[in-house]
Structure to design on (255 residues):
């Protein structure tokens, strides 16, 4: 194959990266960032603020996990409805890293003492805000 | 990692299509068309060419009663795209190293001033 000049190579690399990002992070409807922010914030706060009582704690923990998972499901569903299914490449690895961090958080929250409850509520607000900011960038 | 340029991705439209599909398992024809801003016939032509060269798989089906077409990179296509991008990166890096080498060899003002 004929060689290619460096400028063309750089332009093609940038184009390939933009195309990949468009598939991995499609434009989201305006209602998605706030909804996911609320779900993530609520899930985080619920898990961390769970009472000490065994059954109530289990219910709050499960509820929190479901809320956070629902946020991921919303984004996933929007992507599928847009005609894109599955995730490949570096984004898949970073998605796995997010899940691992969430599991680590879950373990620490379920073993935290009652005194730290409000810390996790505050953490919920922070993660909700971050979620909103990250997703809103795709909406623009 | 050494790469190999692939003629299949020479055209910008085909590179866009392949790179878009590299981010997912498969995508609907219309999603790719919307992204690439191509007409249906133009996308069909590019997709057919990529399918013939083994880079792309085209799947036809139905959602309810509506016919649908999905596009996906084959394993060969993914590998070829990875190698192509690696080759592009090598070209860009080589040019950058060459430019840095030339810049460091340029004489400074003090050394070139007559004594």
């Amino acid at each position: 194959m004929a060689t290619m000049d460096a400028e063309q190579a750089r332009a093609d690399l940038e184009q390939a990266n933009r195309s990949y990002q468009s598939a991995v992070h499609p434009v989201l409807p305006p209602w998605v960032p706030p909804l996911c922010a609320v779900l993530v914030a609520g899930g985080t706060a619920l898990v961390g603020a769970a009472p000490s009582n065994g059954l109530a704690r289990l219910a709050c923990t499960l509820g929190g996990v479901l809320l956070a998972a629902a946020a991921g499901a919303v984004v996933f569903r929007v992507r599928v409805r847009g005609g894109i299914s599955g995730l490949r490449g570096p984004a898949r690895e970073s998605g796995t890293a997010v899940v691992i961090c969430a599991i680590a958080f879950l373990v620490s929250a379920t073993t935290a003492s009652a005194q730290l409850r409000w810390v996790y509520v505050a953490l919920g607000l922070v993660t909700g805000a971050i979620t909103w900011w990250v997703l809103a960038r795709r909406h623009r | 990692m050494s790469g190999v340029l692939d003629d299949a991705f020479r055209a910008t439209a085909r590179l866009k299509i392949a790179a878009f599909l590299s981010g997912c398992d498969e995508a609907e024809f219309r999603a790719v068309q919307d992204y690439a801003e191509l007409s249906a016939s133009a996308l069909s032509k590019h997709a057919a060419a990529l399918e013939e060269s083994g880079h792309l798989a085209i799947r036809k089906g139905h959602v309810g009663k509506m016919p649908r077409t999905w596009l996906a990179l084959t394993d060969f296509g993914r590998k070829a795209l990875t190698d192509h991008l690696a080759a592009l990166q090598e070209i860009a890096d080589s040019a950058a190293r060459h430019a840095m080498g030339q810049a460091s060899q340029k004489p400074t003002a003090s050394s070139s001033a007559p004594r």
